[in-house]
Design brief:
- Helix content is about 35%, strand content about 15%.
- It is built from eight helices and seven strands.
- Strand 4, helix 3 (about 110-125) and strand 5 form a beta-alpha-beta unit.
- Helix 2 crosses helix 3, helix 5 (about 180-195) packs across helix 6 and helix 5 (about 180-195) runs antiparallel to helix 7.
């Protein structure tokens, strides 16, 4: 197995999830929190979580489950095929690098579309998805864009990315800034580096988190190589506006695989 940089204990690949049902529907699904759905009903007839202010017919608020982990937002059929192809490509790269499958670890976001992708790739590699080589990390989850964007059109992504370019430390209303995502990605990477050593790590996550991760990893690699500080320290050092504002330069297609470290 080829050596990793002196500041990392492992080698890393990233994989964006395959084409999901929200991708097919053109929807933003970024929340792991309960979302509020408005409806009209007669007091005493509705069930579930409701807020009633006065008797009679009225608009009430019901609470829907965590969008990101709902099974109806996993991969579509085309996305499953994409994940299988990504698994084949990853397997070839492992073989070319003489990396044994016993040294592979799959670290994934707990969202249904990323867990589904990770499961498909694990199957291609003949790695038990429920075994110790596959592990979900909550800090690899999708970037939360805020309640006003949840379940809205994909066309609104451009609003967020315009804001990112102007100030990557500014949050969309109720959502996460680029800097917020970096902070939790650093936590995830530090956890992975603590748990594993000498492994080939496949990180299965989402478009924004992965392009943000590659942005800071690329900047970290450009630091003075004689400074062998740990990976977390290097990533923290490059958490600056001039670097984070360029994360769209590393945009990924669905099921795109990249070696990053």
């Amino acid at each position: 197995m080829a050596t990793s940089p002196c500041f990392s204990r492992n080698r890393y690949w990233i994989l964006r999830h395959g084409k999901s049902i929200p991708n097919e529907q053109g929807l933003i699904v970024s929340s792991m929190e309960a979302s509020i759905v408005g409806s009209m009903c007669l007091v005493g007839v509705c069930s579930g979580g409701v807020r009633i202010r006065s008797p009679g017919y009225q608009k009430i608020e019901t609470f829907r489950g965590e969008n990101g982990i709902l099974p109806e937002y996993q991969l579509g059929l085309g996305g499953v095929a994409q994940a299988q192809l990504a698994g084949d490509k990853f397997l070839k790269e492992l073989n070319d690098a003489n990396i044994e499958l016993e040294n592979v670890r799959i670290c994934y976001s707990p969202f249904s579309r990323t867990a589904h992708t990770a499961r498909v790739v694990a199957s291609v590699l003949n790695i038990p998805f429920e075994g110790p080589q596959c592990k979900a990390f909550e800090d690899l989850r999708e970037r939360y864009f805020g309640p006003s964007y949840e379940l809205s059109s994909y066309e609104r992504y451009s609003e967020i990315w315009d804001l990112d370019e102007k100030d990557p430390f500014e949050q969309p209303e109720g959502g996460e800034s680029v800097a917020d995502v970096v902070s939790r990605l650093i936590i995830a990477m530090e956890q992975i580096e603590t748990i594993y050593e000498g492994c080939a790590i496949l990180i299965v996550s989402h478009g924004d988190p992965l392009q943000i991760l590659q942005t800071v990893l690329s900047a970290a690699k450009e630091q003075n190589e004689s400074n062998c500080s740990n990976l977390g320290s290097r990533l923290t050092a490059v958490k600056v506006p001039s670097i984070l504002s360029k994360h769209r330069n590393f945009a990924l297609e669905t099921a795109e695989l990249r070696a990053v470290l």
